[in-house]
Design goal:
This protein is of the alpha+beta class. It is about 20% helix and about 25% strand. The strands form three sheets. A nine-stranded mixed β-sheet has the order 9-8-7-10-11-14-13-15-16. Strands 3-4-5-6 form a four-stranded antiparallel β-sheet, with helices on one face. Keywords: Polyamine biosynthesis, Signal, Transferase.
């Protein structure tokens, strides 16, 4: 859990492009955002609208409520000068009510769109790991095709606390009969499932791996193999893959340490291809003059079928409109990694020109 363009017709703009250079030295990947201004536009709008809200350091915001659990000693709900709520855990910002939709829409709708394009139908069976604040199931259940969602989160206190102090995150999703909530370990839950149990889409919304050594198993090769065991030919796996910092304008390097060092090398041992989705956030910084951190998700699938993301399939399946000024789909900011010899990203990786999607749905 880490919470945190412009076409006049159905044509996609070929402007949201990311390029990648990668040599064989571990951890040396450098991501370049060539369309920084366009991707930053909705973030700048948020910053303009809320510049009087006194964001700055989130630790300086007013504390509204606190709690603790067996897994986190410090869980806080803070509030900015405009009354916007901020969920913090262990002194780190988790969700800000102003821009959490950028994160959660990207977490869900690109993966669902990919499934729809592959399977020819909307996703029906969903596994959601983490996302205890409720925003994940909120977005998942907007798809009318969804029949059942199994959500496994280890810390119910986060759910209870969020429901009490930030109910807009879940927006009533916990009352939806399609949602089954299990308090427990997501890895253990999947291990106990019969192998023939497969989900259309699996979404893993866990805290960053750096937050605790206990979390390392949820980003391991073994865990991704476990996920693959519960996928069918058209299934899609979406993984929260951490923030990227130092992303400024075209040509400047984005540092995506968790993605580069902990995620892609392990995913590449299990899946032949993966798409990385990036989008800047408004509230993940203490001063506006600092570059925004970008959130990232990685989509992995078993099929190598080329998908036509220009089809606006999500519009046919969800209730309401996406809140992002520029709906976030794989075309908005993605790149496609293909594993090199040995199926190991560290041994050889390239970003195919065919995998550089540009633009967003109008």
């Amino acid at each position: 859990m880490r919470c945190q363009a412009m076409a006049g017709s159905s044509q996609l703009l070929r402007c949201f492009l990311l390029s990648v250079s990668w040599n064989c030295l571990p951890g040396s990947a450098e991501l370049y955002a060539d369309s920084y201004d366009l991707l930053m536009e909705p973030v700048e709008d948020i910053l303009d609208e809320h510049e009087h809200c006194g964001w700055g350091n989130p630790l300086d915001l007013t504390v509204k409520a606190t709690t603790s659990s067996s897994f986190e000693e410090f869980i806080e709900m803070r509030e900015d000068d405009c009354g916007n709520r901020v969920l913090m855990m262990g002194g780190f910002l988790q969700c800000h009510s102003v821009d959490e939709h950028l994160y959660h829409e990207m977490m869900v709708h690109p993966a669902f769109t990919a499934f729809q394009l592959q399977a020819g139908r909307g996703p029906e069976t969903i596994f959601l790991g983490g996302s205890g604040d409720g925003a994940g199931p909120r977005e998942v259940l907007r798809w009318r095709s969804v029949r059942n969602v199994t959500m496994v989160d280890i810390d119910y206190e986060v759910t209870r606390f969020s429901l009490e102090w930030m109910p807009t995150l879940s927006n009533g999703s916990f009352k939806d009969p399609r949602l089954k909530v299990v308090t427990g370990d997501a890895m253990a839950f999947l291990q106990e499932l019969p192998e023939e149990t497969a989900f259309d889409v699996l979404i893993m919304d866990f805290p960053d791996v750096a937050d605790s050594q206990v979390l390392e198993k949820l980003y391991s090769e073994d865990f991704y193999r476990l996920c693959r065991r519960h996928m069918h030919a058209a299934s899609v796996l979406a993984v929260q893959t951490g923030p990227c910092s130092q992303t400024t304008r075209a040509g400047y390097k984005a540092r995506c340490q968790m993605l580069q060092q902990s995620i892609l090398p392990n995913i590449a041992k299990v899946f032949q291809e993966a798409e990385v989705l990036l989008h800047p956030m408004a509230t993940w910084k203490v001063d506006r003059k600092f570059p925004s951190e970008w959130s990232s998700f990685t989509l992995a699938r078993l099929s190598s079928e080329e998908l036509d993301y220009s089809r606006e399939v999500w519009r046919e399946h969800i209730d309401g409109e996406l809140r992002s000024p520029h709906p976030i789909v794989p075309d908005m900011a993605s790149m496609c990694f293909t594993a090199g010899e040995g199926n190991n990203l560290r041994q050889g990786i390239h970003a195919s020109e065919d995998c550089h999607f540009g633009g967003v749905f109008p």
